[in-house]
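Shipment paperwork, digital attachment
Item: protein structure file
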Amino acid sequence: MRITLLGAGAMGTIIGAYLTEKGYDVELVDSYRDHVDALNAKGAHIVGCVDKVVPVKAVMPDQLTGIYDLVISLTKQTTMREALAGAMPYTNDKTIVMTLQNGIPEDIAAEFVGMDRVVGGGMEFSGTFVGPGVSKLASGEDTLGISFGRPDGKITEEARQIQNMFQHALGHCELTDNLLGARYTKLTDNSCFSGLATALGCLVGDILDNRKAMECIA
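Attachment content:
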């Protein structure tokens, strides 16, 4: 499976690094040239709860080549249409678009490939962009994982293949028949954990390790 990951910010860099580390053919795409250059020259440096450097392939948006089997969309939704439009010439009629942004971006992806070739989901870990080539995993490595599904709830062979890939790379991946439920679960988590972490000036991992903070979350 050949993969392009659009939007290699903190979360995209972490996901791209872990997929690459497990041997998957992933190309990280970002418009921040210093970041792309650093990724190619030094690899993706993941710090925080881990400290590892993974050699990766990174390109600017105008450097895509060939045909991709999976397009992972991690750009901001304000630039999602532009990013997907740039990727479409490098897809075929079987390419799947996977949306991992917050919100409900599946409708935007469906404008390009139709809803039948869209899967969407959310990430169960948190990260922070440190600087070119460097991203911080702000929660423990044991939190790495995603939950995703098709908008129509069907469990297809293509979806199973994507699930197996993420399970192998991250350690956990739930394939759900209730995508909207997964979306609202992520919204609830973000509202609770991000709000409290901001108020306390700490990382999500610090909240997970503190009983009093977790009682506030509950």
